[in-house]
Amino acid sequence: MKSSQLHSQGCLYPYLEKKKLLDGSIVFYPRVICERDPNNPTHYRWAYNWEERVDGVWKGRSIGSIPPGAVPMIRLMQQQGATKEDIIAFIKRAKSKKPSPKLDVCKNSDNTKIKPTLPDNAPIAVVLFAGGGGIEAGMVEAGIRPVIAVEFDPTKPDLSRAIAFTHHHNFSEYGCRIIQLTVQEVAQSGFLGFPRCPDYLHASPVCANFSQAHTAKAGKGGETSDDLTAAIAVAEAVRQLQPRVFTLENVPRYQESESFTAILETLEEYRYLIDYSVVNMADFGLPQARRRLVLIASRGFRVTLPSGTTPCGWYEAIVHLIPTMTDSQLLPKQQQALEKFLAENAPTALLIERVGGRKLPKYKPGSHPANTILRSHFTDHKGCNRNKFADIWLPDGTTKSLTIPGAAILQGFPSWYEFPNEAATAGSIIGYSVPPSFVVQLFTHIQKQLSGAFL
């Protein structure tokens, strides 16, 4: 290899161990029956070499006995331009962890306090319009490794960079690279460095122009050229990457757009079998009413959307956090909403919004899912933090201020996910994200169907 490459990326290479037996014969390890296959990582030992500058002199360094299952990921990281420091850190993690059971779903998927450990041969995914990683959080809980995530909003560059930093903090240990470019820019580059034929490709195009809250504002709403170019870029990703499964999530009105039509036409052109519908994620155990368009497209075998489970009230989901929340006082409009409710109902825990002009009631009884959580709950029209975004009124007259950890639970985030301290950034991640608890169910369902189809 060129010296410059050893300095920047290092070298992954196969080798064999030679041993002389008592009978004088020479054998090579790992032992292989029949001919050794150069394309099979398990037929070789693996090592990684690189150079470091010590006291002005370049010196060679190496790591041996790399698990064969980690080889495809290391190669992918090299193709994507990862630094040798990132590659070395990944190798050390791969060597230090015992191999995980080769299951479609991680054993600890029900314990959201423990960060999942993925097997080396886990399915891989590419995510477009990644945000802070709601999709990725659900994917790793379902046993899928996100390897590339694209996230950048040129209209909010500082916020977008902060969100991308949080994404890197939570998912870099899985070998996931965050690309801070628009999906349109990445498409113009021909998706350079992206894996071809990944197991999964997901897209959640920006939905602001299709949401009811946005279109309700006078003079606003409607599909824009940016929406259409984003959809064309997604369609180009399908053409060039040709994933085994493509998924999409957006607000219900997106299905009426030219953007959605452009994506559908490309999927049909490449003979994907398509299933899509508007689902209420409260029907899947999310303690929040959140209606979203969800699409699954697969090649060679039709994959259907999962069916719902038992709805969950918001109070049950976050009751353990309420004692830790700070005291609050209701605003006049919140007080009016409370009095209206109590005039017709027995006292019960209520979640009462502080902001927003939606037509829905500002309150939700504890036995019901919360109203849809929006980014605008956490920031004002200038993008600055809101000190308070919702309150919890209890029958004893106590009022508590809903916290970011509480909102994260209502959005279905696992407790291992680490949010930034700034409320505007954390709230934006929550408001933008696909609820991870729904994502787990979606991709677990997909994987079970695919496994059943090819047994």
Automatic annotation (TrEMBL):
<keyword id="KW-0949">S-adenosyl-L-methionine</keyword>
<dbReference type="GO" id="GO:0032259">
    <property type="term" value="P:methylation"/>
</dbReference>
<protein>
    <recommendedName>
        <fullName>DNA (cytosine-5-)-methyltransferase</fullName>
        <ecNumber>2.1.1.37</ecNumber>
    </recommendedName>
</protein>
<dbReference type="InterPro" id="IPR050750">
    <property type="entry name" value="C5-MTase"/>
</dbReference>
<keyword id="KW-0808">Transferase</keyword>
<feature type="active site">
    <location>
        <position position="207"/>
    </location>
</feature>
<dbReference type="InterPro" id="IPR029063">
    <property type="entry name" value="SAM-dependent_MTases_sf"/>
</dbReference>
<dbReference type="GO" id="GO:0008168">
    <property type="term" value="F:methyltransferase activity"/>
</dbReference>
<dbReference type="InterPro" id="IPR001525">
    <property type="entry name" value="C5_MeTfrase"/>
</dbReference>
<keyword id="KW-0489">Methyltransferase</keyword>
<keyword id="KW-0680">Restriction system</keyword>
<dbReference type="Pfam" id="PF00145">
    <property type="entry name" value="DNA_methylase"/>
</dbReference>
<comment type="similarity">
    <text>Belongs to the class I-like SAM-binding methyltransferase superfamily. C5-methyltransferase family.</text>
</comment>
